[in-house]
Write a structure and sequence with these properties.
4-stranded mixed β-sheet; 4 strands; flat; Undecaprenyl pyrophosphate synthetase
């Protein structure tokens, strides 16, 4: 499983490849919450950015694309917090067999996606368009 984040257009593509131990697992998220409590961070000063700064991946950009190999339709605790708005591309190809061509396929599919970052786009039916 891998995740890609291009960051700004003038930056290189950041990538993270690995398994469920590479990013915050539920246990690591709880550990971050505990550190926030121990440090006495007031609830009104806690937002997504502050919380993310307590994760093991602090300072790393969130991925825009998660590539899931072996046809699995689950994220297996991989970067749970960070992939909230990532696009997911699934391939039946096993990780040891994953090649540049597969990466190109994933990126091309990603480029065709309509990124909404959690927002919803009204359907033509809801807008009264036929």
């Amino acid at each position: 499983m891998g995740a890609l984040s291009p960051g700004r257009r003038d930056e290189h593509c950041h990538k993270a490849f690995g398994d469920s131990r590479a990013g915050p697992t539920p246990r690591q998220i709880v550990e971050a919450a505990r550190r926030l409590l121990v440090e006495g961070v007031p609830p009104d000063e806690l937002d997504e950015a502050r919380f993310a700064s307590y994760l093991y991946t602090a300072g790393q950009p969130d991925p825009d694309l998660l590539i899931r190999t072996s046809g699995e339709m689950r994220v297996s605790n991989f970067l749970l917090w960070q992939i909230a708005y990532a696009e997911i591309w699934v391939t039946e190809t096993l990780w040891p067999d994953f090649r540049r061509l597969h990466l190109l396929e994933a990126v091309l599919a990603y480029q065709k996606r309509d990124r909404r970052y959690g927002g919803i786009k009204p359907s033509p039916v809801a807008l009264g368009v036929k």
